[in-house]
Amino acid sequence: MEATAERNRDRIGTELSEADEKGNVTKSSSVGAYMILEDIISGVDNGEYFLDFLPVFAITGSTPEEINYYKKMLMTAMEGLGVKIVPSQWDQPYLFYKMRSTEELTRSDRYWVQNMKVSAFVENLFFVSQKVGSDIGFYFGRVDYTTLNWAGNYEKAIASSPTPFFWNMFQANKEDIEGKLGDSPHVGIFGDTGSGKSFFAKLAFVYHSILKGLSLYIDPKDEMKSQFLYVRDKLESYLPEMEENIADLVALIEDNEILERRIRNLEFAYHKPLIDYINHIHFVSLNTKDKKNIGALDPIVFLETEQAKELSTQVTEGLIGTKLTEDDRFENSFNYHLQQVIERRAKGETVGLLNVFKEMAKSKEELIKDRSENILSKISGTMLELVFSEGKNPSVSMDDHITVLGVTGLNLAKSGEVKTAQNKMSDIIMYALGDFCRFFGARNRDQETVIFLDEGWFFNTTDIGKGILMRMKRVGRSENNFLALITQSVKDGSSDEDDTAFGTIFAFKETGNTKAVLQAFGLPDDDEDVITWYENQTKGQALAKDPFGRIGRVVIHGQNSALNECFKTTFSEMESAKAVA
Predict the structure, then answer these.
(1) N or C: which end of the chain has fewer CB within 10 A?
(2) What are the CA-CA distances from residue 219 to residues 248, 284, 324, 480 (Å)?
(3) For 379-435, what is each residue's pLDDT tens digit?
(4) What is the pTM of this model?
(5) Cα–Cα distance measured from residue 287 to residue 271, given in angstroms and rounded to the nearest whole number
(6) In what helix (H) or strand (E) does residue 552 lie, and over which residues does it extend?
């Protein structure tokens, strides 16, 4: 190779010298060839490795005309990149057989073979994939290979990408999946308000909830129920029109197979499957104004034996503090009556945690009687009735296929703040809600469960919330439970006390926190190109890291207009910004 390179270099060098002496214009291609040959000779002298390879584009089509059209497109596109490709007009049979998987390059292969340094060859990135997500999964959008800022026009970003982005979160903890780096089932979804984070989270919830696993969405703003039902009611208003069209089809079409297909198409056109899906969701709004919600999070109603006893003790201590344990007589009475009520519940009686204090209020000991009556007075007419009840209403079901749990009225104190009575009541609801989620995910190892926890920052504002979130994250792979934490900052995803990793991360635009986001992805936080790549994201775009360790920029694409309307979070009667002014 070195001798061949030297001969060609000397020949081209002579041609360049003669052209220079005659004053002729030197061809840039000859100069480039001379420099390449010099580089080859230098590489051989330095002991660098070289390899021969046969680069071939295989173009397919249904007709010769189609193949020729694609060939011209490819040649034009590559020429624009400064790469010349040649049609192998007469050598196609040879190249066809040479590209079989059992063939090798030999010294007799002189034509079409390229020679290159290994260090240069790897720059072709032949073995690098820009794919991100799952091979098999739901379509969520496209992979954006650019660093462009689409200025809010995510439709243009979708149109510019040829690569779809698929995702199935349940793949994360399955065995024998080639290339997977870890088995953490948890998902972190981070980003500013208005970045597209909530839209994506709700889209992911809907898609995964139609699978066999049990799905739970914790909605602290309690906004999903009203919007989903609004969309359902609007769509149902068109169903009489659909039924009339179906009646016309029945009268016109005699072939049952064709009729069934046409009716099915008509139902899709009127979004009948979406209506059926929304009717299948179990919506729960934890608001005590509706008496049906009283006792929805009562530990004795939704938990059993030791778990019910543990949480009942915890919420009672949250309500009265050290008064639970400062006097042995009161604590002993509480433990005795709690055990009695739990056993009565197990036998089928309609009782709950409130019955414990009603029984204690009958005590002849003045301390126990007065303190129990005081507790009953604190509970009556407050949000605490969600936790302390007589068990007359069923708890939030853990067996429904799809549950959206709305929580309103919580007021949590920040770490270090003096807690008000409202803060303490909110803490108690949080205790119960966190244990409900934990038990929901842990009780059946053979059943996939997924919990979407929206506004996750809410849990990180207090020490209690952090502890609850930590316990929920610890329920994971072995229990077949998936937690999707939806919050405003990647900093909410971990803490000094908890380093539980997220196997999958989606980072939408997070203003002023670029460094932390890139560090969470293991990307260099001082590379201007990487910074631009992230900060140029527009609404609906996110950096994605999958369980295979692949990182890419994706743009989210909701294809169903009626379903997209279910995810709306902002409303105004004004039709434009001008109208607002």
Answers:
(1) C
(2) 43, 10, 32, 22
(3) 988 889 999 999 998 888 888 899 998 887 777 666 567 778 887 888 888 888 888
(4) 0.73
(5) 31
(6) strand 551-556
